[in-house]
Design goal:
Layout lengths: L2 H13 L6 H15 L5 E8 L2 E12 L6 E3 L3 H9 L3 E3 L17 E9 L2 E10 L7 H20 L1
Antiparallel strand pairs: 1-2, 1-6, 2-3, 4-5, 5-6
Helix pairs in contact: 1-2, 1-4, 2-4
């Protein structure tokens, strides 16, 4: 991880025990990732709809466009991460038929599923206006950020 990655991750880990709610923690993470990581042009969380576990609802986010508010679990890169249980990294969304457009400016995307007691609870979704933003190093960093939320949700 880069020094910036380490600094942000440490900040998130220190903030998590003081966070008044999961939503506040997600807002904090989204805001700081968007501010500090130049190529993270949209950062947000999707949450499992409590009324329909087959739907992801947009949660706290920061970015220059309005995201898809509801995404079925079998649609888009968010759906792919949800159904596979694995991080999905796409270096060029124009070359991936699963991509569900949120903005024509988006070139790259990473989606990390967040599980609590082996059940999908949320996802951390980051979109970039640049191709090949999400290297292996970036992927490990984003997964660690999602892990902070996962740990918080598991305790509450």
């Amino acid at each position: 991880m880069t020094p910036t990655h380490e600094e942000l991750l440490k900040e998130f880990q220190e903030f998590a025990p003081r966070a008044p709610s999961a939503s506040a923690l997600m807002e904090h993470i989204a805001k700081h990732l968007h501010e500090k990581m130049a190529r993270y042009n949209w950062v947000g969380f999707y949450l499992i709809d409590p009324g329909d576990p087959g739907i992801l609802l947009v949660g706290p986010f920061v970015g220059s466009f309005t995201p898809n508010a509801r995404i079925p679990l079998n649609v888009g890169l968010c759906g792919a991460a949800a159904t596979s249980g694995e991080t999905v990294v796409v270096h060029d969304v124009a070359k991936d038929s699963r991509y569900l457009a949120g903005s024509p400016l988006v070139k790259g995307e990473i989606v990390v599923p967040i599980f609590v007691r082996k059940q999908l609870a949320a996802e951390l979704d980051i979109e970039s206006y640049f191709t090949s933003t999400f290297t292996d190093q970036e992927m490990h960093f984003v997964e660690a950020c999602a892990g902070v939320v996962e740990k918080y949700l598991a305790k509450n």
